[in-house]
Design goal:
The complex is a heterodimer.
Chain A lengths: L6 E8 L7 E8 L2 E7 L20 H6 L8 E2 L14 E2 L2 H18 L10 E5 L12 H8 L16 H11 L4 E3 L6 E5 L3 H4 L1 H13 L3 E5 L5 H4 L3 E3 L6 H14 L8 H7 L5 E2 L15 E3 L6 E3 L12 E9 L5 E11 H8 L5 H8 L3 H13 L6 E4 L2 E4 L3 E5 L9 H14 L9 E3 L45 H4 L17 H7 L13 E5 L3 H4 L3 H8 L5 E4 L12 E3 L9 E9 L3 E11 L12 H11 L3 H9 L8 E2 L2 E2 L10 H16 L8 H7 L1 E5 L8 H7 L9 H16 L6 H4 L11 H12 L6 E7 L13 H7 L8 E4 H6 L7 E5 L4 E9 L6 E5 L39 E9 L3
Parallel strand pairs in A: 6-20, 8-9, 8-18, 9-10, 20-21, 21-22, 28-32, 29-31
Antiparallel strand pairs in A: 1-2, 2-3, 4-5, 4-22, 7-19, 11-15, 12-13, 14-15, 16-17, 23-24, 24-27, 25-26, 28-33, 29-32, 30-31, 30-33
Helix pairs in contact in A: 3-18, 3-19, 4-13, 8-11, 8-12, 8-13, 11-12, 18-19
Chain B lengths: L3 E6 L8 H10 L8 E10 L2 E10 L7 H5 L5 E3 L5 E3 L9 H5 L6 E2 L13 H6 L8 E2 L5 H9 L13 H5 L5 E5 L6 H8 L1 E3 L11 E5 L3
Parallel strand pairs in B: 1-10
Antiparallel strand pairs in B: 1-8, 2-3, 4-5, 6-7, 9-10
């Protein structure tokens, strides 16, 4: 704890959003935190020059906010609901923990799973894993507890890059996909609003790239901040991005000379040359079952890995062989005429011409064609660059996707087309090109490169959830059924929250046939998450939350979700508590470091009121539930980010004792120092409090997957999705064997080469039936706000003040001409109504938006959160329904809804 | 001679308002008093629309109209070009606020805090009653510059002698330095790029330059 009579600046980190962590210093005078500033001493190690974004300047207000919950509280009104006064009354920590541990004790006595086989304890945390950097040792408690349902969503799936997460990890270990920005020369961004959501590193890197000559084309319905900073804005019709990219594929494969593609990369580093049998599966060698390819030198068909062959990309080949389909179904072929995956791709996109796409996208064919030509023109085929002494291909072109483009229906098609476009010019995982930043569904979770391991057919392994008859999980582990329905979700600690997280809510109303009966968890923990605001159909989710029997909320203020809680626990905020985290390496969104190591967030000021360090809360819970030994053992084995013992050092905690937060984090700090220095140093908490970070070099060559793939002789699984096609067939078999047909539409997503479908039509078809002549219909979209995104900052005054400088934060953005045609003037109050319900707000008239589109920035519509409830700003979460129809095969939805608009009041 | 100027690279600026927040933080200005802020400007008609982010604040004019109208001599221009306000002399007439073509001046008569009438501890600690009822504006963090120079540091180069907004900028869009020094960072930027100043036609000779690429 700092000296209360001293003026000092204390280094710490900000990890309020997924674009972090960033490094800062807090100015403290006489024990009061008075300001923050970037940690410019870290400029050399931090990829954003040691800067922090606007959100971090709210940390002081966050700590001293008079609206904080500062004592444990108990609900006295057993009735729950928005219209109910919870009747919270202050109680002591002992009383609160007695009640919680009593409930938990009953569960341990009864059984950790309920009659449906679901965990009796559930826990939901806010976005992107950031709460874990503030919850101290709570993960060790959760691990010690046993099965927990982490899959009750707060909006992820529809609010994240869901399809990209899953397919990105499959194809190039890319939970998040970014350009190698400073080196990239041409970037096509389909709605990726990196200048608002890319954090310090994203903004820094893209600004550097722009002045270095990056040409960026922003394709999206509204003139976002990123579009404003781009060379060209292409206002595309919502949900038609796949058609645009399919047309780009057509240009590359039918309109430009073949040698403008990276043929060497395609032959040697992808599965493009694999031959495809008549049933759509690879033609395989009968004995070895290896996929076959055509060898241009010998003119013969050979196994793909035969040494010295020259793999053909095109041409017709004749061979014996077998195909292996779902459940080992096998077809034998004699002198079968086959073509390569490349030829199938070529033929697949033949009809997807720019002229075809123009009508769908409402974008001129010439524009689409020019973007495709510029893309291939900038690819620098054949060029190389030296990185740390290693010569690598240099392909400075990339394509990025934003939310609503890369999730929900059409997300697969967009992710696939984007990745294939980059594959065709060899810009996948090489300098200048399209990169992944991190893995969350593959292991080890903190080393993307090491997660590359050989799998079948010369491709990377992937930890699919099993779909074979013996191992498929007919009874899901948790309520959202990720392991039953979504093979791509895998089964790491992140998988539950990356499944179809809204199904846990949807199934409560509409129980799924032939799956276990949906149940409510006996105890639900909620931290840094406000599903009653952040989920799609937020009011509906709030209503369902009101039925949960016992909810424990780690509460910052009285917000909409806490309103439904039974116990509120005040945990310390960012600058009041202690935690050490890993930093560096590569991480989403655009964090590409040349270092890796650890950063400390120390307790900088005395905790306000009775707020407690999360680590102390976790330790107390562990002790009261009889889990102390296991909890300590989990900490010792690395559950909070660092294993406490290693070669030549051992800072393990005595497992039988309860340890204070400073003692635990001192041990963690010492282990981290030893880990980073091979045991040479063992600096503890005091050292980190003084210095903030300790790092070691991280090679730039580890930003790219290509060297590891080459070293292991592996190929990228592109463009043909034979494995997904087979797995989809197996999943269909399993579900149908159980009589489950309600997932049949989702099963259609499993295609080897995805076809264009009328994705906008999924939203339009019901409306066309109901109101075929409606003239006041719009697409409603949303967009992230740097001031608010992820930070739980709606209650922070400086976020509101700075946000109000940016157009649209105070209402609904609508095209000026369209608005005027409807008699709507700037500032008028308008009602925005979907099939679900209505919301209302001020009309903000702008030219930079399509006439058929509305935009509501961020997520507001608060009715409880102090300060934010007075904003009078709507949110699309109020009007967007949760439906199975709009759920894709990965379990995600798109943040889009059809709405009508009418004026309900004049500007005041 | 020295003249300190600000250079904003419009090709880099993304309008994030980090500089706005940093200025509020560094100078402890009350809610809504943004000595540095970024305008979100839109021109054109759909679909031919451009949106640009433009950092603004006191332009530290060589011929500042605010100084000419000041009846109390509170507003002055230093030899290094920084335009200052002496709060002890300011009578709060707000002529300067009217005269400034850049809307850079603020006058607060009622003390307000982030969450209403009661200050939080940091606000209480940093509250400066001398700023109530007088004109205030960006001063290029002049105290920091003077302290830095006294320590032998170079404004615009050394963070401890550089305005908070510049230090904070996450796009490296804001730059500060001595335009009279031909080798300074700002001189080099202005030599190597196209630039303009806001409302140059008014003859105020602003000390705030914008870099852009004319197309």
């Amino acid at each position: 704890m700092p000296d209360p009579h001293k003026t000092e600046t204390v280094p710490t980190y900000c990890y309020q959003c997924v674009a972090g962590p960033d490094l800062l210093k807090v100015r403290v005078e006489d024990g009061v935190a008075v300001g923050v500033e970037p940690n410019l001493e870290a400029a050399e190690i931090h990829p954003g020059a040691g800067k922090i974004c606007v959100k971090a300047y709210g940390l002081i207000q966050k700590a001293y906010n008079p609206h904080r919950v500062l004592t444990p509280m108990r609900r006295t009104n057993p009735k729950k609901g928005r219209d109910q006064d919870p009747g919270f009354v202050p109680i002591s920590w002992d009383e609160a923990l007695d009640e919680i541990s009593g409930r938990l004790g009953e569960i341990r006595a009864t059984g950790l799973l309920d009659e449906s086989g679901f965990p009796r304890v559930a826990a939901s945390f806010g976005g992107g894993g950031t709460p874990q950097s503030y919850m101290g040792t709570f993960p060790a408690f959760l691990a010690a507890w046993g099965p927990i349902d982490f899959g009750l969503g707060s909006g992820q799936g529809v609010k994240c890059y869901h399809s990209e997460h899953l397919y990105g990890e499959l194809w190039h270990r890319a939970f998040i996909v970014t350009p190698d920005t400073p080196m990239t020369k041409y970037l096509v961004s389909f709605g990726n609003n990196v200048e608002a959501s890319g954090g310090v590193c994203g903004v820094w890197r893209h600004a550097e790239a722009r002045v270095n000559g990056l040409k960026r084309v922003q394709v999206e319905p509204a003139l976002s901040i990123t579009a404003a900073c781009s060379d060209k804005w292409v206002p595309i019709r919502p949900k038609t991005d796949a058609a645009f990219m399919f047309a780009m594929l057509h240009v590359l494969l039918h309109e430009v000379p073949r040698d403008m593609l990276d043929l060497e990369f395609l032959k040697d580093s992808t599965s493009t040359g694999y031959l495809v049998g008549p049933n759509g599966y690879y033609l395989r060698d009968i004995k070895s079952k290896k996929p076959l390819v055509g060898d241009l030198d010998s003119g013969k068909v050979q196994p793909f890995d035969k040494a010295g062959i020259n793999i053909a990309l095109e041409g017709e080949w004749v061979s014996d062989g077998i195909e292996i389909g779902p459940d080992e179904q096998t077809w034998r072929h004699k002198k079968c005429k086959v073509q390569t995956a490349f030829a199938h791709l070529r033929d697949h996109v033949e009809d997807y011409t720019p002229d075809w796409a123009a009508d769908i996208c409402d974008v001129e064919a010439a524009t689409i064609r020019q973007v495709a030509l510029d893309f291939v023109d900038h690819a620098c085929i054949g060029e190389t660059v030296e990185i740390e002494g290693e010569t690598l291909p240099f392909r400075p072109v990339a394509i990025t996707l934003g939310k609503t483009v890369n999730n929900g229906w059409g997300g697969f098609e967009c992710c696939w087309a984007r990745t294939v476009l980059c594959t065709l010019v060899g810009s996948l995982e090489v300098p200048g090109g399209l990169l992944g930043t991190a893995v969350r569904l593959n292991k080890p979770i903190d080393d993307r490169i090491e997660s590359v391991v050989p799998g079948p057919d010369g491709l990377m392994a992937y930890p699919f959830n099993p779909t074979d008859a013996k191992n498929w999980r007919a009874k899901p582990k948790i309520r959202n059924a990720y392991d039953t329905l979504v093979p791509l979700a895998g089964d790491t600690p992140w998988s539950q929250a990356l499944g179809p997280t809204h199904l846990g809510w949807l199934f409560q109303d509409d129980p799924p046939e032939h799956l276990p009966r949906p149940t409510l968890p006996d105890v639900w923990f909620l931290y840094r998450s406000n599903p009653a605001i952040s989920s799609w159909d937020a009011p509906g989710v709030a209503e369902k939350m009101s039925k949960f029997p016992f909810m424990v909320a780690f509460a910052y203020t009285m917000d909409e979700s806490n309103h439904m809680a039974d116990i509120l626990l005040p945990d310390c905020v960012d600058i009041e508590s202690t935690q050490l985290i890993r930093i560096g390496g590569t991480k989403f969104i655009e964090q590409f470091w040349r270092y890796q190591g650890y950063a400390l967030r120390p307790a900088i000021i005395k905790a306000k009121g009775e707020a407690r360090d999360f680590t102390d809360i976790a330790t107390t819970l562990a002790k009261r539930t009889g889990l102390l030994e296991s909890y300590n053992a989990r900490i010792n084995s690395g559950a909070v980010g660092v294993k406490l013992s290693g070669d030549g050092y051992d800072f393990s905690l005595d497992v039988d004792q309860a340890h204070d937060a400073p003692d635990i984090w001192d041990a963690v700090c010492r282990a981290a120092s030893s880990d980073l220095t091979d045991g040479a140093e063992s600096d503890g908490l005091d050292w980190y409090r003084e210095n903030g970070v300790r790092v070691a070099p991280f090679p730039q060559t580890k930003w790219y997957l290509y060297p590891k793939m080459k070293a292991l002789g592996l190929r990228f699984e592109l463009p043909y999705q034979e494995r997904l096609y087979r797995i989809g067939g197996e999943l269909a078999n399993r579900l149908h064997e159980r009589g489950i047909t309600w997932w049949d539409e989702q099963l259609k997503e499993y295609q080897a080469l995805p076809k264009w479908k009328d994705f906008p039509g999924l939203w339009l078809e019901d409306e066309d039936k109901a109101e075929p002549d409606a003239k006041d219909r719009f697409w409603l979209l949303t967009s992230r706000s740097m001031q608010y995104a992820w930070g739980g900052n709606a209650a922070i005054q400086i976020a509101s003040e700075t946000g109000s400088n940016i157009a649209g934060h105070d209402g609904v953005i609508i095209n000026r001409g369209r608005a005027e045609s409807l008699g709507i003037a700037d500032g008028d109050r308008i009602e925005v109504c979907s099939e679900l319900r209505a919301t209302s707000g001020r009309a903000v008239l702008r030219e930079g938006i399509r006439p058929d589109t509305l935009l509501m920035i961020a997520q507001f519509d608060h009715w409880k959160t102090p300060f934010a409830k007075d904003f009078d700003v709507p949110s699309m979460n109020t009007v967007t329904p949760i439906t199975l129809k709009h759920t894709d095969a990965t379990g995600s939805g798109s943040d889009i809804v059809r709405v009508g608009v009418r004026k309900i009041g004049a500007a005041s | 001679m020295t003249r300190y100027v600000m250079v904003a690279d419009l090709r880099r600026c993304v309008g994030c308002q980090t500089c706005t927040a940093a200025c509020r933080d560094a100078n402890a200005t009350p809610p809504g008093v943004q000595w540095r802020r970024v305008l979100d400007m839109e021109v054109g008609t759909y679909p031919d629309v451009q949106r640009t982010f433009v950092p603004v604040g006191c332009m530290h004019c060589a011929d500042p109209p605010c100084m000419d109208v000041c009846p109390s001599t509170a507003t002055r221009k230093r030899d290094d070009g920084i335009v200052t306000i002496d709060y002890d002399l300011c009578i709060g007439c707000a002529y300067c606020a009217v005269a400034c073509p850049y809307q850079a001046r603020y006058k607060v008569d009622l003390v307000r805090y982030a969450y209403g009438d009661d200050p939080m501890e940091p606000e209480e600690k940093r509250h400066d009653p001398s700023r109530v009822g007088v004109s205030t504006k960006c001063n290029f963090c002049v105290d920091k510059i003077d302290d830095g120079i006294a320590k032998g540091l170079t404004p615009g180069v050394d963070p401890d002698a550089t305005p908070a907004c510049v230090n904070s900028c996450i796009a490296n869009a804001l730059h500060f330095g001595d335009i009279e020094d031909p080798d300074s960072n700002v001189s080099r930027l202005l030599d190597d790029n196209q630039s303009f100043r806001m409302h140059e036609e008014l003859g105020t000779k602003p000390g705030f330059y914008y870099l852009w690429d004319e197309t």
